[in-house]
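Supplementary Methods. Inverse-folding protocol.

Structures were first reduced to a discrete structure-token string of length 678. This string, shown here, constituted the complete conditioning input.
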């Protein structure tokens, strides 16, 4: 998105995405001309997938190129703080919605001059439900004369199918989309006219605003998958599909505490009833709901017979929200039920759904994690579903990773029940357990042990080939299927790449995967090991120019303009959507800017003058960086930022609270400023 003053003209908006062996490199280019007789600020604002790493940004102004430089976050923090304290844009990367992050920066362009912005980001596409999805968000904020989206997909295994979906794939725009598929390559072109950019379903006089989603899968002719080698690196994609399903044992642990009231509990019941109907007759299952107490449907696992499923659905329909949240007892009971039901040739799964922190029983998060890990003992994965944004997602993520699972956020929306069902379908059909990826002659490997492999997913391993000796490099996969040991070997499925593009591509895939997994490992370790893991993730981020939670990109600008510093948020650091609020600002104040909380959360403020840090408040809310405001306001606030016990604050010059001398900023739950301490 380009925010432009009247008479500014955006002449070019191009998105070019190249996918090679599921690794996508996308370049967004925008050229804008200032048609006015005076200098004007032009803001570049685009949205990219959360799973991606920004790897390059540059601006071209009047023949001069200004490149972004990736630095350790600590080194860039001082520049960021100075920019915010002066009331200037800090160049933010922030979470937007479920799957996107928003990048923005701005620059002053002289009269009758042009600026070209170019942003590059990279991501490894994940296979879910038997397909890959490449999401491209187009939001130029005005009709553009030269608007192009070009996607080129190269897959040595061959492309099985390709589809174009998303909000921009509509009947009104059908003739703007061209799709071509030829064996190992596919192309998608999206070239809407200026009129189409104004009249389509998700368009207006401000141009397009929507997604193109390229959906595809590759051929899977061999059970071993495909493995690429180049420049001393390899990448192995393993996703066998011609295997019998493994019967499963699954326990659902459902939070029914008071905070689940309303739509959350209704959608949970709907999803649970649907999921129960999808269980196969050779599956065994258990169902627990909990608040401060546990409520068993049955105290032991039972077979998914028709009668048992109908009884369980009746139990699910009667789940009611009430009481506090005893996560520790509930998860331990789910683990006990699975441990009490060992069954050869089956796969066990524990699924927790909760929307908040533990409030009764054992409430120390570290103790709960230790208890759960001790109960599971590595025998089965724990999947944690965090409902909404009040949940402590980092707590759930760490607990899942400690037990070979993953955490997933369920967004509080009208389709939350579909999100729950969609996650369950990802793990509904185990095909292999105890998967071990072996690479003789390989080193610096990414994760090689996986507790389970599910139909429709994919295991990806990358590494380096010792001494680049392909002759001694021998890959193999060992796994269990229905109590039988299977060995998958490389039977002439290897492709050796020698082209310069592939040589450049392969190490970056390895680095991307390694950094992602090191960031996860950082959550699980402490002391010297944590320091070592963090240092290695930082070293690779800097070497490959990735903007990660450990690095920032410093965006240089022409002399006299503030340097922007771009941070990548972690999951859970999503800023509130301020667009719905009518926030008061002075007539002559600068436009709204974004800032960061010290916890990483973002807030929006009016003109920023100086920055302070408040201590952790008495209600145990996280400390945040607030900012002084020019304006004078009167307002009400309450404990934990408005839980209902409101008190009055009058604000005098500088925006300080008279009662506590605390500075004031806008908060997401209010249409007026609030005090961070009270």
């Amino acid at each position: 998105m380009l925010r432009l003053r009247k008479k500014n003209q955006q002449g070019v908006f191009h998105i070019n995405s190249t996918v090679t062996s599921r690794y996508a490199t996308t370049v967004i280019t925008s050229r804008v001309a200032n048609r006015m007789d005076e200098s004007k600020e032009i803001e570049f604002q685009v949205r990219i997938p959360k799973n991606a790493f920004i790897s390059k940004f540059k601006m071209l102004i009047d023949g001069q190129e200004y490149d972004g430089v990736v630095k350790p976050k600590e080194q860039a923090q001082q520049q960021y703080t100075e920019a915010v304290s002066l009331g200037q844009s800090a160049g933010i990367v922030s979470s937007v919605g479920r799957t996107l992050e928003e990048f923005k920066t701005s620059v002053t362009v002289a009269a009758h001059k042009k600026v070209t912005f170019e942003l590059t980001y990279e991501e490894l596409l994940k296979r879910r439900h038997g397909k890959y999805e490449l999401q491209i968000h187009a939001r130029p904020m005005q009709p553009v004369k030269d608007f192009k989206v070009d996607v080129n997909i190269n897959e040595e295994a061959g492309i099985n199918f390709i589809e174009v979906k998303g909000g921009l794939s509509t009947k009104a725009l059908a003739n703007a989309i061209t799709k071509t598929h030829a064996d190992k390559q596919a192309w998608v072109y999206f070239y809407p006219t200026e009129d189409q950019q104004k009249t389509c379903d998700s368009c207006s006089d401000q141009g397009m605003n929507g997604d193109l989603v390229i959906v595809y899968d590759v051929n899977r002719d061999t059970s071993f998958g495909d493995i690429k080698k180049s420049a001393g690196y390899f990448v192995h994609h393993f996703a066998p599909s011609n295997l019998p399903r493994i019967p499963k044992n699954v326990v659902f642990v459902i939070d029914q505490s008071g905070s689940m009231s309303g739509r959350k509990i209704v959608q949970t019941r709907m999803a649970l009833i649907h999921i129960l109907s999808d269980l196969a007759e050779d599956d065994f299952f258990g169902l627990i709901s909990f608040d401060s107490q546990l409520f068993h449907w049955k105290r032991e696992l039972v077979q998914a017979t028709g009668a048992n499923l109908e009884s369980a659905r009746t139990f699910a329909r009667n789940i009611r929200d009430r009481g506090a949240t005893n996560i520790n007892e509930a998860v331990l009971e789910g683990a006990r039920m699975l441990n009490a039901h060992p069954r050869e040739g089956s796969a066990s799964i524990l699924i927790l759904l909760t929307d908040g922190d533990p409030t009764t029983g054992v409430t120390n998060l570290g103790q709960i994690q230790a208890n759960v890990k001790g109960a599971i003992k590595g025998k089965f994965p724990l999947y944690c579903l965090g409902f909404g944004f009040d949940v402590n997602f980092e707590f759930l993520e760490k607990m899942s990773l400690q037990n070979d699972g993953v955490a997933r956020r369920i967004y509080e929306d009208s389709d939350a029940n579909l999100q729950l069902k969609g996650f369950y379908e990802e793990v509904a059909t185990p095909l292999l357990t105890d998967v071990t990826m072996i690479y003789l002659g390989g080193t610096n490997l990414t994760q090689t042990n996986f507790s389970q492999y599910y139909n429709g997913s994919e295991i990806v391993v990358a590494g380096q080939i010792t001494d680049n000796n392909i002759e001694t490099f021998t890959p193999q996969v060992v796994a269990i299927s229905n109590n039988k040991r299977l060995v998958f070997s490389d039977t002439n499925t290897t492709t050796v790449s020698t082209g310069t593009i592939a040589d450049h591509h392969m190490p970056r895939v390895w680095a991307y995967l390694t950094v992602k997994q090191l960031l996860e490992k950082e959550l699980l370790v402490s002391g010297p090991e944590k320091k070592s893991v963090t240092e290695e993730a930082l070293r690779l981020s800097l070497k490959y120019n990735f903007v990660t939670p450990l690095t920032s990109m410093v965006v240089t600008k022409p002399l006299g303009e503030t340097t922007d510093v771009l941070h990548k948020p972690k999951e859970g650091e999503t800023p509130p959507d301020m667009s719905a609020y009518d926030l008061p600002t002075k007539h002559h104040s600068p436009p709204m800017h974004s800032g960061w909380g010290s916890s990483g959360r973002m807030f929006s403020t009016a003109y920023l003058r100086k920055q302070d840090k408040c201590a952790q408040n008495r209600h145990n809310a996280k400390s945040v960086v607030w900012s002084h405001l020019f304006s004078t306001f009167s307002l009400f606030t309450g404990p934990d930022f408005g839980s209902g016990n409101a008190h009055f604050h009058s604000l005098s010059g500088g925006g300080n609270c008279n009662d506590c001398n605390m500075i004031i900023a806008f908060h997401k739950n209010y249409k007026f400023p609030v005090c961070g301490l009270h």
